[in-house]
Write a structure and sequence with these properties.
The protein is α+β, with helices and mostly antiparallel strands and 188 residues long. The protein has a single domain, classed as Glutaredoxin (3-Layer(aba) Sandwich). A five-stranded mixed sheet has the order 1-5-4-2-3, sandwiched between helices. Helix 3 packs antiparallel against helix 4, helix 3 packs across helix 6 and helix 3 crosses helix 7. It starts with a helix and ends with a helix.
Length: 188
């Protein structure tokens, strides 16, 4: 895959697809949504790239949406429970590392709960959230969102609910271009 700058402007169908997502509110920041799964090797590789990119783009909101397949529900519940506790961003690299580098099967609930306790997370609070109706609804919402956004796998990056990146998701120049497209869209 040659990055967009090698050919000039990004090309629809080669570098990105336009999807018919919900238009963002005019006053809200441009949003980059990363669909991911903690167990995905490509998501693990993309994580430092997307975080570094986001830190250099403070006017852009970075959202994470956990994967939406039934087999991945345990780790999606983990994401939402930790997010509700306000500690997901701190534990995110540790979760990726546990799965990808240490081979810990965090999709197994008993293994997950033991690992969560070892990280100093109050397990009663975590489990209460993990099994809550609120988290179940958030997962259903993420599944609907993924369908609406035409997401078929992970990782996937969607800019402002409209531009779905294709090819090399670590191509931050392409991501910059798509953010610029979204900013231009908002002017019209």
């Amino acid at each position: 895959f040659l990055s967009a700058p090698a050919f000039g402007q990004p090309v629809e169908g080669r570098d990105y697809l336009i999807v018919s997502g919900t238009p963002p509110a005019a006053k809200s920041p441009v949003t980059v949504t990363e669909y991911f799964y903690y167990g995905c090797p490509e998501c693990y590789d993309l994580e430092p790239v997307i975080n570094q990119w986001a830190s250099s783009h403070p006017s852009v909101k970075l959202d994470h949406v956990p994967a939406f397949r039934n087999a991945w529900i345990t780790l999606a519940r983990t994401y939402y429970a930790l997010e509700k506790m306000g500690i997901e961003s701190r534990l995110r690299p540790m979760i990726f590392s546990a799965i990808r580098e240490q081979g810990i099967d965090l999709s197994n609930e008993s293994v997950l709960f033991g690992w969560i306790m070892k990280q100093g997370v109050p397990i009663d609070r975590f489990q209460s959230l993990f099994f809550s109706d609120e988290i179940t609804e958030r997962i259903k919402d993420s599944m609907r969102l993924a369908l609406d956004d035409h997401i078929s796998g992970v990782p996937a990056i969607l800019v402002d609910g409209r531009y779905l990146m294709l090819g090399d998701l670590a191509d931050t120049k392409l991501l910059d271009e798509l953010v610029e497209f979204a900013q231009e869209d908002r002017k019209h």
